Amino acid sequence: MKNDLREVLDKYNINSSKITIRGNTRIIDDRLVFKPRVNNDILKTYDYLKSRAFDYFPYPIEINKSFEIYPFIEDIHEPVEQKALDLMYLISLLHSKTTFYKEIDIDRIKEIYESMIEKTNYLDNYYNNIIDNIEREVYMSPSSYLIARNINIIFSSIYYVKDSIEKWYKLVQDNKNMRNVFIHGNINLNHYLKSDKPYLISFNKSRIDSPIFDLLSFYKSHYLNIDFNDLFKYYEIKYPLKEEERLLLFCYMAIPPIIEDSGNEYNMCIKINKIIDYLYKTSNLIMNYQK
């Protein structure tokens, strides 16, 4: 890998004096960005997006057996809220430019429905067992008390998903076609840059799917520090979701995660508090949105 990097630097006459490491990415002298090659079809992705008049991404200078090499883009500082709004606009543009309809896949619909039912039934039993065990404790630990005090939001989230997935299943069964778009697959603020124009980067997880999955990944990445009430409404001004799409998005958002043991009481309280905070924020967002 080092030899491959040296070979490319020699090719472009770069005598590297500065290398910035960000995860698996190497930024050389603020001129070239080297990313390990993980997607053999990434050029097809870029060419497809250009054919749909969406060119808000850096086109690679070169792709070899080891690297994808891109020009470095200097990111302009923006307030987080402004950056989130700009990113939401770019997502809506990506979806609107790549929309198409195809015959509904009954097996896929059934798979989503059955998976959601199985997951909610499991979570229902899982949290019932937890609360049963807590009630047997003579003295509640802080983490147990935190769960017991907030168990209503956990169960109401589970019951909301159970009810909504039934509504979704009835809706989609009456449809002949389903809307598909090209989704980025890993939307978060780290994958948005603003320079001479806005850019989306890191398309390695992109695919054809429902537009809700880009909204879902954006929400789960930033629900703690960004208010999504206005962001989702702004997106829908640009690219309105269908009723069944919105229902499924809210189902995925409202599913409570399981509580994994963190090894000590302090870390457990932090983890549980984060889950509770997520469920309250999501519940309020869904209720406000429906109003």
Roughly how many Å is the radius of gyration? 22 Å
What is the rounded distance between the termini? 55 Å
Number of helices: 10
Average pLDDT works out at 91
Number of domains: 2
Order of helices and strands: HEEEHEEHEHHHEEEEHHHH
What is the CATH-assigned architecture of the largest domain?
Alpha-Beta Complex
Number of strands: 10
Q: What class, by secondary structure content? A: alpha+beta
CATH level 1 name of the largest domain: Alpha Beta
Helix content: 40-55%
Q: Kindly identify the CATH topology of the largest domain.
A: Aminoglycoside 3'-phosphotransferase, Chain: A, domain 2
β content, as a range? 5-15%
> In what order do the strands lie side by side in the largest sheet?
1-2-3-5-4
Which regions have little confidence, pLDDT < 50, spanning 5+ residues?
A: none
Characterize the overall form: globular
Sheet with the most strands, sense and barrel status: 5 strands, antiparallel
Ordered list of secondary-structure elements with their pairings:
Blueprint: H1 2-11, E1 19-22, E2 25-28, E3 32-36, H2 42-51, E4 62-63, E5 67-71, H3 80-97, E6 100-103, H4 106-136, H5 142-149, H6 151-173, E7 177-183, E8 192-194, E9 198-200, E10 207-209, H7 212-222, H8 228-238, H9 243-254, H10 265-290
Antiparallel strand pairs: 1-2, 2-3, 3-5, 4-5, 6-7, 7-10, 8-9
Helix pairs in contact: 3-8, 4-6, 5-10, 6-9, 7-9
